[in-house]
Write a structure and sequence with these properties.
The protein is of the alpha+beta class and about 280 residues long. About 20% of the residues lie in helices and about 25% in strands. It contains five helices and 13 strands. Strands 1-6-2-3-4-5 form a six-stranded antiparallel sheet. A five-stranded antiparallel sheet has the order 12-11-10-7-13. A hairpin with a 2-residue loop joins β3 (about 105-115) and β4 (about 115-120). α3 crosses α5.
Length: about 280
């Protein structure tokens, strides 16, 4: 995976013109940096960084107005998406996508923190040669002001379409068991950790309370998913070794009608674990 850039490049050919012993076809920046002469300029920086990540100056002609990078990229056969991708070029137009009202802006996505936060590296003509920005999409423009419109992100072919994806959440019953087993600690740490992982704290805690209540009117039956919190036996007669506790499984056989001391056979993915009394089980 790519290394995040947090410092201005110096004496790096990706950020210098050919006349300055570099690879770049971009214009000289303003104010001109002495060791990276295409800076300060968002275009010179984005072109240089995009190709630096690839490891070769494969796309030297990303050297147009920033807001027109989308069309130039498509001419190269590069893919454009409407969300940030790692190592990709974020593109904003200014005003109406014409030269008369501004050239737009481009920046490189260095890190993706969440669906609403990224970390970029960038430069600006007439401004600073280099800076990093934490950008959020609360305004729909990834942190730019109302003069700008986010047009899309050019995927870096060396990285691919690496973007934020919502984590796959466990079923409510399973995450409640994780809470019961102590994975999320106690309140308020529990609330903070659950919400960080994408869960609704109130829903999870309600399920925890429901499982721990072990209501007397619950009648176990085959197919029920259960949390086993006490040990059982290897047979329904209570013989042989003690069967394990503290796991989630499924009731595979119900012999309660036969008055067996351990009437419920519990297994995991079809593998028998042992026989249990009702009081050892919590319905999920």
């Amino acid at each position: 995976m790519m290394e995040i850039r947090t410092t201005k490049p110096s004496n790096n050919p990706f950020y210098n013109t050919k006349s300055n012993n570099g690879y770049s076809e971009c214009i000289v920046g303003f104010p001109t940096d002495s060791t990276a002469n295409v800076l300060a300029n968002c275009v010179g920086y984005a072109c240089g960084r995009f190709n630096e990540i690839i490891g070769d100056m494969v796309y030297p002609y990303l050297n147009c107005n920033a807001e027109n990078f989308i069309e130039r990229a498509k001419n190269y056969g590069l893919e454009v998406v409407n969300y940030p991708t790692l190592g990709g070029i974020m593109v904003w137009q200014k005003g109406s996508l014409s030269d008369s009202d501004g050239a737009g802006h481009v920046a490189i996505v260095e890190r993706i923190d969440s669906d609403n936060q990224i970390y970029t590296s960038e430069s600006g003509y007439g401004g600073n040669a280099f800076w990093n920005t934490t950008r959020r999409n609360n305004n729909g423009r990834w942190g730019m002001n109302s003069s700008y419109t986010f047009r899309g992100c050019i995927i870096n072919p060396a990285i691919g379409d690496v973007h934020y994806e919502q984590p796959k959440l466990k079923p409510l019953g399973e995450i409640a068991i994780d809470v019961i087993n102590g994975k999320y600690g106690n309140y308020p740490e529990r609330k903070e950790l659950l919400e960080k992982d994408g869960y609704n704290y109130s829903e999870v805690q309600s399920k925890v309370n429901e499982i721990l209540s072990n209501k007397n009117d619950w009648i176990p039956k085959e197919g029920d998913t259960v949390y086993v919190e006490k040990t059982g036996k290897a047979t329904s007669y209570g013989e042989f070794n003690t069967a394990k506790a503290y796991f989630t499984g499924t009731i595979m056989t119900d012999l309660s009608s036969k008055n067996r001391p351990y009437p419920y056979l519990v297994g995991i993915n079809g593998v028998c674990i042992g026989w249990y009394k009702k009081e050892a089980l919590r319905k999920i």
